[in-house]
Amino acid sequence: MSGVEQATDASKSTSSLLERAGDDELHDIVCIGFGPAALAIAVALNDAIAAKDPSLRTLRPKVRFIERQPSYQWHPGMLLEDSKMQITFMKDLATLRNPRSHFTFVNYLHNQQRLVQFTNLGTMLPKRLEYNDYMRWCASAFEDVVDYHRSAGRIDAIESTSSSAAVQAFRVVSTCHKTGKTSELRAKHVIIAVGGKPYIPEALRFSHPRIIHSSQYMTEAASLFQNGQQPQRIAVVGAGQSAAEIFYDIPSKFPGAQSVLVTRRSALRPSDDSPFVNEVFDPSRTDDVFSQSPEIRAQAIAADRATNYGVVRLDLLEHLYSAFYTYRVKHLPEESWPHRIANHSTVTGVHAAKAGERSVLRLQIQNESQAYGRSNIPQKQELDVDMVIVACGYERNVHEDLMQDLQAMRPEADSAGWTVSRNYAVKFADDALECDRGIWLQGCNEKTHGLPDSLLSILSVRAGEVVDSILGGGPDGQRKTMVDSVLGAAGQ
C-alpha cells in the first residue's frame, strides 16, 4: 500500500489571515525556518487574528518565513511506510492551545473525510506519513508568506539614527537556491526555528557518498546503488528510535543485504512513556524547569533522558527480538545471522578499502564485551560494509552561526553563549535594543526549558506564548505562561 498521498490542491487548507508585505517594508516578524515549530507559530498567529485577540498590538502583522527546503517537508528521510508517531495526535499544532482552531488534527481528518475511519483504528498514534500530510495541509494555508528554497546566512543589527545607538531593527540576509542571489528583509522581531543539524561523530567524519545520516535514509539510501547494484552489508550506528526503525526496515528496502546495528550499549532499551513519566512533557513543566537552579535543572533533565534519548518503543523492540529468536530456532550461530546487533561496540575510524573486487567502507570497531563478562569477541575488529547510516541525533547550534555578527550585543555575563528568558527571547546587553525589538530561539533551549524543547509535544502552547510575547506583552512583559495558555483554552 502506498500510504497517505501528499496534499493536493483539492485537499489544501483554507487561506490564512497573514498578509505578505513587500521586501522593502519593515516586518513585524521574520522567522528563519518553516518546520513544525515555525508552522505552529504561524497557526497561533492566525488563530489570534481570527479571534481578534485584543492583546495583539496589530491585527495586520507583516510576517515572513524563510525556508531552505523547496516545499514543506517534515523529516522526509524518516517517513517509513509503517512508522507511527510517538505522541498522541492531541498534541498537534493547535489543540492544547485552542481546541476550536481550524488547524487541529481532528479538523484535518474531517476535512479529508477520514474522521470516522480514523476513529475505527482505535489509536491515538497516527502513522508518521499521515501526520506529515496533516502538517503539509496546515502549511498550505501559509504559502503566501513563506519563501521556500531560500537559506538565511546571517542576522545583522540596524542601529538607530538617534543618539542612543540602540538597535532599531534586524536585517536577515538570505540566498535563493535557484538563482544564487542574496536579498535582505528588515524586521523588528526575528524568530530562529531552524531545527537540528545532523550530528556525525568525529570517527565517522570521512567524506564518502555512502556514509549518510539517518535523516537521509528514505530520500537517498536507495539511489546510492544503481545499475542493478545491491549492498551486501549495511551498518547502522546508534541505539535510539531512528536507528532501530532503519535497522528493522533494511530487510524490506534491501532484500538480501545483511545489516549490523553498532551500539556502545549492552542492549537496546525501551522508552519510558508511562502516564506518570509522560507528565515530563506537560506544558506546565516548562515553568517549573526554568525556575530551577542550573544544577537541579541539569540533574532533572538527565534523570528523564530515558523518555526520549537513545531509547526505542517497546513494540519495535519486541519485533526485533522475535526476528532474532527465529534465527535461534533455525539453529543459526549468532555470527552468521543476516541481521545482528553489535553491543558494547564503538566505531573508532573508517576508510575506503577493497574486499576482493568490491569497494567497501572498512570500519574500525572497539568492542568492550570482555569488560562486562566472559566473551571471546576480540576488542579490536574490522567490519566491511557497503553503506553506513549514522543515527546519532542532531546538534542544535545553528543559531550561533546566524547570530555571529551580533556578538557585541551579548551581555558580559553570557560570554560563553547566548541565553534566553522564560519566553524564549534572547537576552541582549542593557540598552542594546530599542523597545519592542528582539530575537526568539525555538528548539535549542533544552538546557533551560527542559526535554520537550526540541519535540512536538509543546509546540501549540509554546507558539501561542511566543506570539503573545512578541505582539502582546513584548520580550520583557510576557503576560501568559504555558499554564495560563492551557487553562485559557480549556475555558473557551
From TrEMBL:
Family statement drawn from the similarity comment of this UniProt entry: Belongs to the lysine N(6)-hydroxylase/L-ornithine N(5)-oxygenase family.
Cofactor(s) named in the record: FAD
Protein name: L-ornithine N(5)-monooxygenase [NAD(P)H]
Pfam families assigned: Lys_Orn_oxgnase (PF13434)
EC number: 1.14.13.196
UniProt GO molecular function: oxidoreductase activity
UniProt KW keywords: FAD, Flavoprotein, NADP, Oxidoreductase
Pathway, per record: Siderophore biosynthesis
Catalytic activity: L-ornithine + NADH + O2 = N(5)-hydroxy-L-ornithine + NAD(+) + H2O; L-ornithine + NADPH + O2 = N(5)-hydroxy-L-ornithine + NADP(+) + H2O
InterPro entries: FAD/NAD-bd_sf, Lys/Orn_oxygenase
Example of a GO biological process term: intracellular iron ion homeostasis
Source superkingdom: Eukaryota
Gene3D superfamilies reported in the protein's UniProt record: FAD/NAD(P)-binding domain (3.50.50.60)
Organism listed in the record: Sphaerulina musiva (strain SO2202)
